[in-house]
Amino acid sequence: MTFQNPLGLLLLLTVPAIIAFHLFRSERRRVEVSSLYLWRQVADRHSRRVRPRLLSNVNLLLQLAAAILASLAAAQPHLPVRQAPSPPAVILLIDDSASMRAGDVPRLEVARNRAREIIGRASGGTRFMLLTAGPRPRIVQTFTTDRTLLYERLWEISGTDGAADLEQALALAGAVGDRAQTNLVLITDGAISASRRPEFPTNLRTELVGGQDGGSSAANRAVTAFELRVRPDGSAVEALVGVANHASDPAEVRLRLSADGITVSEHRIGLDAGEERLLTAVIPRTRALVYAAEFVDNEDALPADDRAYAVAAGERPVRVHLATPGNHFLESLLSVYPNVELTVTDRVRQPLSSDLLILDRVAAPSGLRGSVLALGTSLPDGPFAAQQLIPVDRPASGRVDSPLTGGVRLGEVRITRILIGDLHPRATVVAASGEHPLLYTYEDDRLSLVGTTFALSDTDLTMRTGFPVLMHNIIERLAPVAPAGELGYARPGSIVTLSVAPGEELVIVTPDGTRLGYTPRTSRFEFSQTWQAGLYEVRSASSRARFAVNLLDSDESNLVPRLEAVRGEVESPAGAATAGRPVWRWLAIATLVLLAADWLVWVRRY
Fold first, then answer.
1. Is the domain of 401 the same as that of 471?
2. Backbone phi, psi, residue 128, to 5°
């Protein structure tokens, strides 16, 4: 029993007071006498009885019981109730990184079978959750006791070509599970370097699968680096290539460099056991868009790291549609802007097929989608509803934390007049003159907009050095432009931003030939399904593009287990005694009943 108000037990001090009261009070009884002479004798004899028989005094016993029960009721006791144990919970954290795809029988398949065994051996009420620990950890299945559903979700884990991010995976597991009540099981091949190994929680245990012997099943050669740089004069491309031999025996590899599938050079490289090496090469500059470094006739446990690609950015120019009655400064700037294909018209022409629409003092049609820069005009269904044109005499002030105004001294810009009106609450004011916005941004599911309430003809902005900087910042926000000819790649699991035509059907072909279809609403489309290493092709009605995804991770290519078994585990309690149902109300009622009984006994007695 527990007491929520132990001070209530102080009422027990009334017990000795009640006993004293009954001990020293004179007991009076009804006595019939035949003469008043005898009354004095009765009174004198009664006064000498100051010690009545307490145990035979019913009123005393009832009052004592009432005092004790009232004291207990004031202390608010709660009787302990043994609750039924909550069903045990287990989070299965399955490593689906690149190393788990190694071997004749992929380690991931062994891991799925091991997870199936763990689920099958558990008691019927055990709740399971499935998580992955690849380059971007994710929840595959939330807590459930449905074994059939868990088995189906297990086979949906197909693996990636990226490195495991155990820190993020454990953080995700900790966010969805109670560490004190949940068992966490990491199923992995142990090919995790010490530098990437976070501190393991106490409720984690590991299940190591595949490659524990570190023998031939872990032998692997890998391309670990592929960096390209175009010489300043554009005459050639300088390549830095890293190769590694993660095996217990020396090996010789043939490395081939190619441009658009045409072999540029081949190199025979001897590598000692565990050796990593960097080498440089020069590739004559051509109009090639895809460069590759790959092993020739190499058979090892992990093919995903046998090659690497780099794709030239700017394969498709960014299409800019400028609708203006005439603006020499704006047209001149955009005509020399890197990797921009400029179209100039005197009005907006439908349908739009541009990456960026710039409206310069022209009426805008309703229903615009994609990226829009509105200079001194407003959209009929946009975030700014213009009302009138007013003169301005206050200097502009901009937000110092906005990337749009970085490098631009707006306080020095002279603006003669602006549009005033109602601005949508979701819009962000970047620069203002007093209470009137000058530059604002707006985003929703169909429109990405940067707008000004002034026309370029009503300001000296175009005559200042900050004008090209401001336009560059705006274009980078609405339609990011990679430097023409820049060579690069992405990591598995990363998000690749593509410049596309809004509303056009988009098809992305993955390295294994899978076709993924999308219909982007804006000109910037973020593609996140980059789980495979290799070349991706982007197709639409108006453009073609490619991008590369490479592993290039020496730690992940090293298939030798480096993680020792961990046996931390938390057992779910069979049951816990906790504060249960309060009983003070019943004690209070019993106190009232006893007091009522005491009163009835006293009335009947006297």
1. yes
2. -120, 145
CA 422 from chain center: how many Å? 35
Same domain as 237, residue 178: no
Same domain, residue pair 412 and 354: yes
End position of a domain, from candidates 173, 208, 243: 208
What pLDDT sits at residue 49? 46
In a domain, 574, yes or no: no
- Of 427, 445, 478, the position where a domain reaches its end is 478
d(CA 374, CA 439): 10
* Statement: residue 353 has pLDDT above 80: no
Residue 27 maps to a domain = yes
Short-list 338, 317, 313, CA closest to 489: 313
pLDDT value for 145? 93
| Strands laid side by side in the 89-94 sheet | 139-144, 127-132, 89-94, 182-188, 204-208
Task: Kindly report the average pLDDT of the chain as a whole number.
Answer: 84
Residue 241 token pair:
């290539």
User: Could you tell me which of 301, 318, 381 has the C-alpha nearest to residue 353?
Assistant: 318
For residue 321, report the phi and psi dihedrals to the nearest 5 degrees: -110, 115
Q: Which residue has the higher pLDDT, 353 or 414?
A: 414
Give the domain extent around 298.
225-312
Residue 20 DSSP symbol? H
How many domains is the chain built from? 5
Helix ranges (H only) for 142-273 are 147-154, 166-176
For residue 233, give the CATH number of its domain. Answer: 2.60.40.10
- Cα distance between residue 136 and residue 397, in whole Å: 41
Sheet (strand 544-549) strand order: 515-518, 506-509, 534-539, 544-549
Taking only the tens place, the pLDDT of each residue in 473-488 is: 898 888 766 555 678 8
Residues 67 and 191 in one domain: no
pLDDT greater than 90 at residue 587: no
pLDDT tens digits for range 26-78: 556 666 766 666 666 555 554 444 445 555 677 778 778 888 888 888 888 87
Averaged pLDDT, 318-345: 87
578 within domain boundaries: no
3-state secondary structure 322-334: EECCCCHHHHHHH
Do residues 250 and 352 share a domain? no
Where is mean pLDDT largest: 32-41, 196-205, 252-261, 345-354? Answer: 252-261
Same domain, 501 and 542: yes
Contact, 421 vs 438, CB < 8 A?
Answer: no
Domain match, 352 and 460 both: yes
Residue type, position 351, single letter = P
Q: What is the CATH number of the domain that holds 116?
A: 3.40.50.410
**Length, in residues, of the chain:** 606
Q: Position of tokens 């031939």?
A: 216
Q: Show the tokens assigned to 541.
A: 């009605």
Tell whether the model's pLDDT for residue 81 goes beyond 70.
no
Give a yes or no: residue 600 inside a domain: no
Q: Taking the CB of residue 334, how many other CB atoms lie within 10 A of it?
A: 20
Rg (CA), the chain: 41
Residues 381 and 453 in one domain: yes
